[in-house]
Design a protein that fits this description.
Layout (H helix, E strand, L loop, with lengths): L1 E5 L3 E2 L11 H14 L7 E5 L2 E6 L1 H10 L3 E6 L4 H16 L3 H17 L4 H12 L3 H9 L5 H8 L5 H22 L3 H12 L4 H12 L6 H12 L10 H18 L1 H4 L2 H4 L6 H18 L1
Helix pairs in contact: 1-2, 3-4, 4-5, 4-6, 8-9, 8-10, 9-10, 9-11, 10-11
């Protein structure tokens, strides 16, 4: 149903994710509305007493307020709190360019509401993923932004750095690395490449020294990590990494487990001799053994 209601009686969505609006973009929208009017369904909400709680259309409402309209038409529907939160967030995610931290905060609110309604965490994550069209992995990454330092969150909120880029930088060197990424305009793929090059340095002391150089912004190119590592490693006796014994022990347990699982093939042994039957398995085993020999010889 559609109603015409005084603009002063239209309240924002209580689950609105956006914290601020750009005045210039609202002015441009107001100019467009002045010229063309509001299209049907531009504002949608639910009744709350004699007032309307807006589900979506907050930028358009701000624009008509700027124009000084006394009344506005709103599509009214019966909407639950969850529907209000989800539909508002979906609109913002798809149309209004929320910062990643605002997305994280809104998704957190949705998950909290679902938890209070008795929805299991895994089911709630699946529901949010399906409704918003976002992968579960990206939703988890977004939520992890809320654990970062306030200064890093502010940088994401102000769009000085994207959420995914901030996470990659933070994993590499905390808040200082986030600032380095901002100052040097390092994209996420370059940060990933830097982290990968650092992890491949065999000497722990050299690895940590170069990581510090990267965090300070003195090394920002992946190739430079390799070159600096070669320079520092030249003439040094290699040191075994501190976690070598743990890694070797874990691999020994894996190999023992695989060896035990070979018993499953005993029942099929005579069929494995048929021409072409086990070529794929044989090829993979030969490749694995060759690589293992290179590592251990």
């Amino acid at each position: 149903m559609k109603i015409v209601i005084p603009v002063r009686n239209v309240q924002p969505n209580p689950f609105q994710a956006r914290r601020k609006m750009d005045r210039e973009s609202i002015k441009a929208l107001a100019d467009e509305i002045r010229e063309n009017g509001l299209w049907p369904g531009a504002l949608r909400g639910r009744m709350k007493g004699d007032r309307v709680e807006l589900c979506y259309g907050h930028r358009r409402l701000a624009a008509v307020k700027m124009l000084g309209w006394p009344e506005v038409e709103v599509d009214i529907e019966e909407l639950t709190d969850e529907e209000m939160a989800v539909q508002n967030l979906a609109e913002n995610l798809q149309r209004e360019g929320l910062s990643d931290i605002e997305k994280a905060e809104a998704i957190h609110v949705m998950l909290q509401r679902m938890a209070r309604a008795g929805v299991k965490e895994s089911d709630a994550m699946q529901r949010v993923s399906r409704m918003l069209g976002l992968s579960g992995g990206w939703i988890k990454d977004l939520l992890s932004l809320r654990t970062l330092e306030p200064g890093v969150q502010k940088a994401i909120r102000d769009k000085r750095i994207a959420g995914r880029t901030a996470l990659e930088a933070h994993r590499l060197g905390g808040r200082q690395m986030v600032e380095t990424a901002i100052q040097n305009k390092l994209p996420v793929h370059k940060l990933s490449a830097l982290a990968q090059k650092i992890r491949r340095i065999p000497d722990e002391e050299v690895r940590e020294e170069i990581r510090r150089e990267v965090v300070r912004g003195r090394v920002t190119v992946p190739q430079a990590v390799q070159e600096k590592a070669r320079s520092l490693l030249r003439g040094r006796a290699p040191k075994a990494p501190a976690d070598l014994d743990r890694i070797l022990g874990a691999w020994a347990r894996k190999v023992r487990a695989w060896s035990g699982e070979l018993d499953e093939l005993v029942f099929y042994r005579r069929f494995l001799r048929e021409p072409g039957r086990a070529d794929g398995l044989r090829s993979e085993l030969q490749r694995f053994v060759t690589r293992l020999q290179r590592l251990t010889s």
